[in-house]
């Protein structure tokens, strides 16, 4: 038996990506402890895994909601900059407290979300192995791949590579405080500073919940990188009540802007107005039980949260912020999309939606009711979007999912050697 520690940001998208893997490892006889701030405790308990609070005095219950409320009103570079600041602060707290807690609990190995940039350094400090997991877009850098925070298309030409390099320079500028903190801590712990971002990720195995077909063509992923497909599992999520009796049987449009960038009243208004005159029913999930957003459109069923996995089985079109989880969950049901990317990796996910032909993209800065309505009608009317979503659904069905990921994790930890992709 191995005692695994799971480390990821305390947001539902990241947590719900990792919990099924933790649950699968638990079923195989391993012990699994999730390291999150107190706001993640209920989600972990609902999945039946062990929970350990990160710096509970610094991050009391409710801290995440306050941070998300602030970020939820931001967009673009401002949202990225504030996110980096929050991640830098939490990384400092992790470095200060978590190594001691992991020693006390007897953690043997870590599974680290790529966004939790401290994880690899903590594992090295403790001299334990770790596995990297991409719950968001693949963050490994490649000169042919645009930075994750852009809607840039895939362009492997000389001009495209130069464009990407300039984008990465901007990203390095935005993330400099975090990068400097990590290397400073590595020096204090006697570890070699990172020379590039890709060195943060595991030398044993790196796992992405994307299917390879939903990623731009890459040339420099390590041989131990695996596209396993997503781990969607409603049994690891809290039960969400929903008024199914209010569904009319009309074509269903499901709209969600996630649980982070979800405070933009104008965006919700635009979605509701764009659907108002269409022969559809709109289910609009606010992603927030405390939201004061008011929607009065006649054919909109507005809820604080929705049972997303269940609703998508009935959905004709998803309007999404292009969070990776909602995107993959839609594609798993062959549901095409209209993406409204707001910040962080959402622009990059939306670029892949456009590239794969599974939907249309309207950046938040260009969101207007006529433009959105036109995009909705286009995706609903042209069969190619549905056909491409079906193609992606088949690709997802061929992936190994959570069982494949658990096999990779177990092999990497038991052998101490890189697990090569086939």
Q: Any overview of this molecule?
A:
InterPro entries: Glycosyltransferase_28 (IPR050426), UDP_glucos_trans (IPR002213). One of its GO terms (biological process) is antibiotic biosynthetic process. Keywords: Transferase. This is Glycosyl transferase family 1. It comes from Microcystis aeruginosa Ma_SC_T_19800800_S464. With 422 residues, the chain is α/β, with parallel strands linked by helices. The chain has 2 domains: 3-230 and 399-415, 3-Layer(aba) Sandwich (Rossmann fold), CATH 3.40.50; 240-397, Rossmann fold, CATH 3.40.50. Helix content is 43%, strand content 14%. It has helices at residues 12-27, 41-47, 63-71, 76-105, 119-126, 158-188, 265-276, 308-312, 324-332, 346-355, 369-381, 383-398, 401-415, and strands at 3-7, 31-36, 50-53, 109-113, 130-134, 206-208, 225-227, 252-256, 281-285, 300-303, 315-320, 337-339, 359-361. The strands form 2 sheets. Strands 3-2-1-4-5-6-7 form a 7-stranded parallel beta sheet, sandwiched between helices. A 6-stranded parallel beta sheet has the order 10-9-8-11-12-13, sandwiched between helices. β5 (130-134), α6 and β6 form a beta-alpha-beta unit. α1 packs across α13, α4 runs parallel beside α5 and α4 (76-105) runs parallel beside α6 (158-188). It is globular.
